[in-house]
Amino acid sequence: MTETPAAVQGDPSHGTPSPDLKIIETRVYRGPNVWSYEPAIHLVVDLGSLESFPSNTIPGFTEELLERLPRLDQHHCSRGRRGGFIERLNEGTWLGHIAEHVALQLQQEAGHDMRRGKTRQVKGQPGRYNIVYAYADEAVGLAAGELAVRFVNQLVQSDPEFDFTDELERFIKQAERTAFGPSTQAIVDEAVSRDIPWIRLNKASLVQLGQGVHAKRIRATMTSETGSIAVDVASDKDLTTRLLASAGLPVPRSESIRTVDEAVSVANKIGYPVVCKPLDGNHGRGVCLNLKNADDVREAFPIAAEQSRRGWVIVENMVVGKDYRCLIINGRMEAIAERVPAHVVGDGVHTVAELVDITNADPRRGVGHEKILTRITVNNAARQLVRDQGFELDDVPPEDVMVKLTLTGNMSTGGISIDRTWEAHPENVEIAEEAARMIGLDIAGIDFICPDITQPVRETGGAICEVNAAPGFRMHTNPTIGEPQYIAKPVVDMLFPPGATSRIPIVAVTGTNGKTTTSRMISHVFKGMGRKVGMTSTDGIVIDERLVIRSDASGPKSARMVLQNPRVDFAVFEVARGGILREGLGYERNDIAVVLNVQPDHLGLRGIDTLEQLADVKGVLVEAVPRTGFAVLNADDPLVRKMRRKCSGQVVWFSMAEPGSEVREYIEGHCRRGGRAVVLERSELGDMIVVKHGRRSMQLAWTHLLPATFGGRAMMNVQNSMAAAAAAFAAGAPLHDIRQGLRTFSTSYYLSPGRLNEIDVDGRTVIVDYCHNAPAMRMLGDFVDRLGESLIASSELGRPSRIGVIATAGDRRDEDILELGEVAAQHFDVLIVREDARLRGRQRGELAELIATGVRTAMEAGARCRQVEIVIDELTAIRHALARSNRGDLVVMCVDQHQTVLSELESVSHLAQAGTRSGDEGGDPDFVKPSEEADVPEE
């Protein structure tokens, strides 16, 4: 744990400290992030006047803090030993750092053993701090941070409306409400110990174990292997009894009825004493035991009927003996517990009511299933039962006399459990296992009533009184007496047998430019191999080449949606900077991390002001690579090269550097040591992509034969192809499959919408792309130059013009927007500047004017561009570009809504073809745009 620098003595001139600590911003990281490898809460706080008052300058602060939370003395802090945090308090530390430790301790008070945290001052903002701490449950972690801040303010200046004891109790109760039950938690803990990933699917106990096609689900102790028919059978106690009886298993005589008179009639026929219970109840609710006459039956019937969802009640003869629960998992007996009903034992001093209070004071007891044991509730039934035993609640029972408070031994009614797993007679074990098989449950709780589980029930007169679906594990994992049984192990063994896979391969792609195209290339390679690929990108979520959600899906939420899809057996995630800063990765680790480049874009947002800081954000993917994984890194980018130090696995380089250069020499040395790389070999015949592994060199493909490279002219897609090849090779794809994938991947709208899509519009070559920043414009400009030269060579209409439609997002810095215009001016003859529909904080027309200013600046310096116009609306700008172009011209459209633009272009293309066929030489009316409107921003 780290903290702020050591505090200094406060300046008395600053006056009296005020409770100014407040939370400015809250983020929840659900995976690896820029602060931590694990999920974490991030609070940005402002100390206000408290920046001048470290802990040692506030009288009584430390003493009251430790009085309220004495276990803070166990915190190591940066000292690395117990009591280290107390030393920091006494020396003086700032209150943001103290709030971090309080938030961690509050979670420990709620049973979440969280210890990791750090506090850092926000650079350039005195008094503001980043507080980052671990959490187990998101809601509890957030509540802990909010309560910590309020508590620290209370210590600074007392608030009569704030009662820390009440607030802490309320916080703990909230934590208990959101926590998993003991059964679910036991299974999740076992899964974590085996490195099986899990996702909580709702606020209750529905949990996914594993990813994609390997995923299994549990809800408490019901699993995705539990048959619905078996659950229905177990819920019908009458049917259960008949099925077990048909198999020759010992069961009590019983009948199901719907009226009081029928209940009395059956009881008379079976013989007293009898049991009356709901046909489809659970947790012992509505079960009435030891009914000795018709009056008892009449009184018990409505109690049982109330708990029956279908109104049916079972009357059966009462089997006398101890209550045992046999837990059967996957056909085998794994644990047996004797259940003792809720009771108190007299001591000759205290009354029954006092003994109940003493028993409930046991810290192991809580409400419902929140703790190992459940508090005993004294209701009317309990009072009557005590009275039947000859006592009242105010009576003092003799020493060692047991007074029962319930008749059933359910843990949920306050009972206790005694482990009897190794004491059961083999014949009884066989009967329990056969009962589970008859009902068809993968996890079953078989309730035995018999005098002694160590003796055969067929000889002692015992019987199976119930078979339970979704039996609770608490009595076995935390018995009141005896050894705990680790029964989550056979459950996870059943869902994931030894050697079974729980994870799907994850390839994560990041970089300033090229992420979407590279992700699509990788997906295309593995789709060709027959894999069911789930991909996220800025265009949406694609499952097996079907776009299922259309939105910007390059964030952590989209990644989790793919991992939940039961069809996916391979995942490719485009990971954007914003998602990492907002929520982290959203998953635990990626097998392969691909980092394409780090260029100046999105700077000045969320505290990322420099390229080095941006590289740290994108480097989170490399840090999330396990020892068995790979980081595919661009050796030509110095900031990406440095990320090799963050990788726990192996590094695969890709590079377009010339042989003999410093970068290539480094890569050659890497390969001689057994490493992997993808490089470009140049010759008179063209450029060849070569895969290197150790001392082997394997030719992959000529770049001019890859459709996405436009005959080798689109160098950005040459680089993207190399990155995709390196990732696929690291993921185990054979070379011929990688080659086939790249040779069949084109920039058609079907395979790569909005990325270098080429379409012929009435003799014009139109390129549609998503370029939106200066580095991307340089690469696009290089492509335009190369493509323009080929068009000149093939043109019969004279020298073709280059017309560009450009724009950028409003959340870029002014200097970046100006640079975009300056770069574009170097490659186009005419530029039409438009704006996106979302301005991201800018005024309408502001962005376009900034870009146009950059273009004009370059024009004054002698750039290629000779004219710039502003047409705000995207479709209007597209139509205007087409209207002022001629046959043979090159028109490049940097678009926002690519689907709308492509639809428009196809429509125009069809209209033009129809006009030509009919002899109409005129243009489309939409192309005609009055010149006086060209420079007027439109709404």
TrEMBL record:
Keywords: ATP-binding, Ligase, Nucleotide-binding
EC number: 6.3.2.29, 6.3.2.30
Enzyme superclass (EC): ligase
Catalytic activity: [L-4-(L-arginin-2-N-yl)aspartate](n)-L-aspartate + L-arginine + ATP = [L-4-(L-arginin-2-N-yl)aspartate](n+1) + ADP + phosphate + H(+); [L-4-(L-arginin-2-N-yl)aspartate](n) + L-aspartate + ATP = [L-4-(L-arginin-2-N-yl)aspartate](n)-L-aspartate + ADP + phosphate + H(+)
Annotated region (Disordered), positions in chain: 1-20, 912-939
MF terms in GO: ATP binding; cyanophycin synthetase activity (L-arginine-adding); cyanophycin synthetase activity (L-aspartate-adding); metal ion binding
InterPro entries recorded: ATP-grasp (IPR011761), ATP_grasp_subdomain_1 (IPR013815), Cya_phycin_syn (IPR011810), Cyanophycin_syn_N (IPR044019), Mur-like_cat_sf (IPR036565), Mur_ligase_C (IPR004101), Mur_ligase_C_dom_sf (IPR036615), Mur_ligase_cen (IPR013221)
Ranges of residues in domain ATP-grasp: 241-496
Short name of any one Pfam family annotated for the protein: Mur_ligase_M
PROSITE patterns xrefs: ATP_GRASP
Stated family: In the C-terminal section; belongs to the MurCDEF family.
Quaternary structure and partners: Homodimer.
Stored PANTHER family: CYANOPHYCIN SYNTHETASE, MUR LIGASE FAMILY MEMBER
Database matches in NCBIfam families: cya_phycin_syn, PRK14016.1
Record's protein name: Cyanophycin synthetase
Upper taxonomic lineage: Bacteria, Bacillati, Actinomycetota, Actinomycetes, Propionibacteriales
